[in-house]
Specification:
Number of helices of chain A: 33
Oligomer: heterodimer
Number of strands of chain A: 16
Distance between the termini of chain B: 46 Å
Order of helices and strands of chain B: HHHHEEEEHHEHH
Distance between the termini of chain A: 44 Å
Largest sheet of chain B: 5 strands, mixed
Strand content of chain B: 5-15%
Radius of gyration of chain B: 18 Å
Strand order of the largest sheet of chain B: 3-2-1-4-5
Structural class of chain A: alpha/beta
Radius of gyration of chain A: 26 Å
Helix content of chain B: 40-55%
Chain lengths: 801, 196
């Protein structure tokens, strides 16, 4: 593909020219988040009326979702060019009672006015939830159904304790990238026709095919309603521009997604409508649009060539899509704020990299999307730039670096060479691997071919470390026995024994988390098949098998780990004390119990002499690599319910802050309640040189991290083209050495302190947490402190503080 | 026939009562409306007085007092009673310090309290001591996970039932508000936000 733009920065297009887009941005950012119960009400209504009808589960689910789509209100809450909304509000927090929607029951009177991230719920809707909707779901949400089916187990108990692991399936079926090419090229009518033909031919799978047909027809009914309403509104408009806007939407809805998209605007409209429909079936947690600069390029190119589209118009349409993607946020109970506070829905868009043939895939649309990202500076979509250091041009690399400098946080960089090799070595064909896209935060997926459920488990890695120190118990849960008995810390006299205990506890905990994931998967298969999402994948329609039953071409489940650096440093500290000093584990145990009060000398010895992850010496000693290998190999012994493998990953969103808060002192010298280090990032201030840090992380390689990783680096400032080039150089050197992903915050400690003290002066400050981006003001005070305390390097790679 | 029910203080803590003299359209029913209005006011005073008792309960007696008041309000307040329409569930509360078991049994639109075990509770809540349950149910809103993380409570069974109970306890507390009171009053009532 070639780049034809004379100015890849598109510096002539600004929000001064795109005033409507600027207004949309302001409206979105200032709009309150409103809890939307429309879906909850409609699906409950259908299920109450038809429970016990004897419909096969997948047909029942399809009819339920179709009922919602057919009755979903057609609303146009702002001046967006694209029709369709996830919820009924301008910025909705849709409530999904199947998952965690019940969690706000105790907060019905307070969620609108809570101090942090209020979500507005009308009194009328609160009453409806309390008296009509919630009573039906008391025993029917995923966690309750799992307990009912499989009984209370130690794994459900650990899940409810939160401090061991989080099971993603309690919250959603998500974290994937659909396949939009077919619906764009052929239209849903063709997919429905295929489903109906196969329903008649393949009796063993007819329920699946019929379900797909039912739910897709429900989807088309919603689009029809949108078109009718847009047409009606057009008739009422006096402003010719608004009239034209509504008529354009009405015409698009009359055509897509039923028919193939004709042109760029229709293609973008079709893609957005598909996302709305997917959100109707399942909660939007990292349902990722994928490689939009590739998927939409043929439509852009054709329209540009025929003269019916300008670059500016294309940029405006892309900007409108970016706004639309932010029209929904997750419903967050107050009780989850500490762990997930400030989280978006993390729909990842992936740009650049190479194409299926292995050639440079960067095109004009890549730069248009980068410019839209730069101008809007929004949390959603979560922007990611693939970079192949041999195939992509330096000007692309530097342009991405420039957008990072301007927005202070986005996009993240991903290493094509390493990621493609990793996916290929884990079973993907080379063509498919080259077409990878980012899921949610940093995870790797192959759009429409792999169903990765990449956030199936979030495992707190400090849990098995503590269990190895306290004979299968955790400090904060007292005497309750969870893991196997492997001895008390004070009894260990050599490191190999402790390492064996750590491995045993970790293996046991992984087993428990996976057992629960598999149980919940069975509940999903019974209660929550996904015929709509399945129809937007390659594989399910061929196999006659739902996505969550193994319909995709490639199947895997992701497990990400919180506290990696803290655990590695703790293991190194224990090894150091045992092998190189006369200090006993009894002394360390006493120090930990006292949170190092009265044992500061021991803490300082550990801090100064034990190896630290991120340094060259640690990298050469191999502990970090050993932990990575051990975890990868442990997961390889487990196969998921779809026949795929579990993939370890290292990204932590804001959980390293929340889980750190409830974790006691660690052998690394970390005191109680302090945040863990984020993602795969070394502990702050452990490494004085950025080059040393990057080399050490890169030395971990990618083959044992197929799920993805997040490395956070903070620069106080990037000024001018030379700095931008140097930032690009760091990325390139890191990737040549094998680093997988890197993301930046371009902000100084002083600025972040000021932002914390004067939030009104930084209303929409974007920051990278660990994986996705967030608005600084939406984060918990603890998470803000974690960002403030992160290591900071100047552009020469020296630690600033 | 026009009917006017007592103002729903629990549902509208921020609203003042409407004057029935202004809303009554049919003068024939004026007396009936006035009686209902004053009976509603009287009930409101009774409810506030009852719920006020909860705030004065000592920690060790808090749960039982709360349940007894809840049981009474469920009888006299038809709107609050809607919370347990067709709701059948047994809760078991265990004080970890004194090992006292209290069962709350919701059945036939009533709440019965028993100081004993029940065989098949929907949820079992073990709280560290009287202060722990008091702190949980008087926080605003009740944060079950925070209390669990701090090891102040432990639960087994269906969490949804516990969350529903927490909502009912919070609704009950709102009844202590005077007409026109706001959520802020509730926070004041419980000394400080998140505390008791």
């Amino acid at each position: 593909m070639s780049v034809t733009l004379e100015d890849i920065r598109l510096s002539g297009v600004t929000l001064n020219e795109l005033k409507d887009l600027a207004a949309l941005r302001d409206t979105l950012l200032s709009a309150p988040v409103e809890v939307c119960i429309e879906r909850a009400g409609l699906i409950t209504e259908y299920m109450q009326a038809h429970d016990g009808d004897g419909q096969p589960p997948i047909i029942f689910r399809a009819n339920t979702v179709a009922h919602y789509l057919k009755n979903k209100e057609a609303v146009f809450p702002d001046g967006n060019l694209l029709a369709g909304t996830t919820g009924s509000k301008l910025k909705s927090a849709p409530l999904y009672p199947e998952y965690i929607g019940m969690m706000i029951w105790a907060e019905l009177n307070t969620i609108s006015t809570r101090e942090k991230n209020p979500q507005v719920l009308s009194k009328e809707d609160a009453q409806k939830l309390n008296f009509q909707i919630y009573p039906y779901w008391l025993d029917r949400d995923v966690l309750s159904a799992t307990k009912k089916e499989f009984g209370e187990s130690i794994s459900t108990r650990m899940l409810e304790k939160i401090i061991f692991f989080v099971a993603g399936k309690a919250g959603c079926i998500s974290h994937t990238v659909p396949f939009f090419e077919r619906v764009l090229q052929e239209g849903l009518d063709a997919i429905i026709e295929e489903a109906e033909q196969k329903a008649a031919q393949k009796t063993e799978s007819k329920d699946f095919y019929n379900a797909a047909s039912i739910v897709l027809k429900g989807f088309l009914r919603y689009v029809r309603h949108l078109g009718i309403e847009a047409h009606r509104l057009a008739q009422n408009q006096k402003n010719p521009k608004d009239k034209a806007r509504f008529l354009r939407m009405a015409r698009a809805c009359a055509h897509v997604p039923a028919k193939p998209a004709a042109g760029f605007y229709e293609a973008v409209s079709c893609l957005w409508l598909c996302l709305v429909a997917i959100h109707a079936e399942n909660m939007n947690m990292a349902i990722s649009p994928g490689r939009l600069d590739q998927v939409l390029y043929p439509y852009y190119q054709a329209d540009i060539a025929s003269g019916i589209l300008t670059v500016e118009e294309a940029l405006e349409i892309v900007g409108n899509l970016w706004i639309k993607i932010g029209d929904n946020v997750n419903l967050v109970p107050e009780m989850s704020e500490e762990l997930f506070g400030g989280a978006g829905t993390a729909p990842a868009v992936t740009l650049g990299g190479i194409n299926k043939e292995g050639e440079d895939a960067v095109n004009d649309l890549t730069y248009i999307m980068l410019r839209a990202t730069e101008l809007l500076g929004l949390r959603e979509p979560n922007m990611n730039a693939r970079f192949h250091y041999e195939k992509n041009e330096k000007r692309y690399r530097n342009r991405v670096a420039e957008v990072i400098a301007k927005t202070k946080a986005i996009p993240a960089f991903h290493n094509d060479d390493a990621n493609i090799e990793t996916l290929h070595s884990h079973g993907a064909s080379i063509e498919h691997a080259r077409d990878y896209a980012i899921i949610g935060c940093v995870e790797l997926g192959i759009p429409g071919r792999s169903y990765d459920s990449s956030s199936a488990v979030i495992l707190n890695l400090t849990a098995p470390l503590e269990m190895a120190m306290y004979n299968g118990r955790r400090y904060s849960t007292g005497e309750e026995q969870f893991g196997p008995s492997t001895g008390e810390l004070e009894d260990f006299t050599n490191f190999n024994d402790f390492w064996a205990a750590f491995q045993k506890q970790t293996g046991w905990l992984i087993g428990q988390a996976i057992d629960l994931n598999e149980q919940m998967a069975k509940i999903h298969q019974q209660m929550l098949p996904t015929p709509l999402l399945s129809a937007l994948f390659e594989g399910p329609l061929t196999k006659g098998c739902d996505l969550i039953c193994g319909g995709a071409i490639y199947n895997s489940s992701g497990v990400t780990h919180v506290g990696f650096a803290d655990v590695v440093d703790s293991l190194n500290a224990i090894r150091y004390l045992l092998e190189e000093t006369h200090y006993t584990m009894r002394l360390l145990q006493d120090a930990l119990k006292a949170d190092y009060d009265g044992y500061e000398y021991l803490r300082q010895i550990i801090k100064h002499y034990a190896l630290k992850y991120g340094t060259k010496a640690e990298s050469e000693s191999g502990m970090s690599g050993e932990v990575i290998r051990f975890l990868h190999d442990t997961y390889q012994s487990h196969t998921n319910h779809r026949g795929g493998k579990y993939r370890p990953a290292y990204w932590t969103m804001t959980q390293h802050s929340g889980l750190g808060q409830v974790t006691h002192a660690l052998p690394s010298g970390r005191r109680a309640a302090l945040p863990f280090s984020s993602g795969i990032t070394p502990v702050p201030h452990a490494v004085r040189s950025l080059t040393e840090c990057l080399n050490s992380v890169a030395s971990l390689g990618c083959e044992n991290i197929p799920g993805g990783e997040a490395l956070n680096i903070k620069f106080p400032s990037i000024e001018g083209s030379e700095d931008i080039k140097r930032l690009g150089d760091y990325v390139e050197a890191y990737f040549i050495n094998g680093g997988q992903q890197i993301q930046f915050n371009i902000m100084s400690r002083q600025m972040l302190i000021d932002a914390k003290l004067n939030p009104d002066n930084y209303p929409n400050l974007l920051v990278r947490v660990s994986g996705y981006s967030a608005y600084f003001n939406n984060l918990t005070e603890r998470m803000k402190d974690e960002l403030i305390l992160r290591a900071e390097y100047d552009i020469n790679g020296r630690a600033v503080l | 026939m026009n009917t006017i029910t007592a103002p729903k203080l629990a549902d509208n803590p921020g609203k003042t009562e409407e004057n029935p003299h202004k809303t009554a359209e049919n003068p024939i029913h004026f007396r009936e409306i006035r009686i209902k209005h004053y009976f509603g006011k009287f009930l409101g005073i009774i409810k506030r007085a009852l719920v006020g008792i909860i705030s004065r309960a000592v920690a060790d007696k808090f749960l039982v007092v709360l349940l007894r008041i809840m049981s009474l309000i469920l009888i006299i307040d038809s709107n609050f009673r809607k919370n347990i329409k067709d709701f059948e569930a047994e809760y078991l509360f265990i004080n970890g310090k004194s090992n006292i078991h209290v069962a709350a049994i919701f059945k036939d639109n009533k709440l019965k309290i028993r100081k004993r075990q029940v065989s098949d509770p929907k949820v079992t809540l073990v709280f560290k001591d009287g202060e722990a349950i008091m702190k949980l149910l008087l926080s605003y809103p009740p944060n079950i996970f925070e209390a669990a993380l701090k090891q102040e409570i432990d639960f087994k069974g269906n969490l949804n039932y516990l969350i529903k109970f927490a909502y009912m306890a919070l609704t009950l507390r709102n009844m202590a508000l005077p007409p026109g009171g706001t959520n802020e009053n509730t926070i004041h009532f419980s000394n400080q936000k998140g505390q008791y």
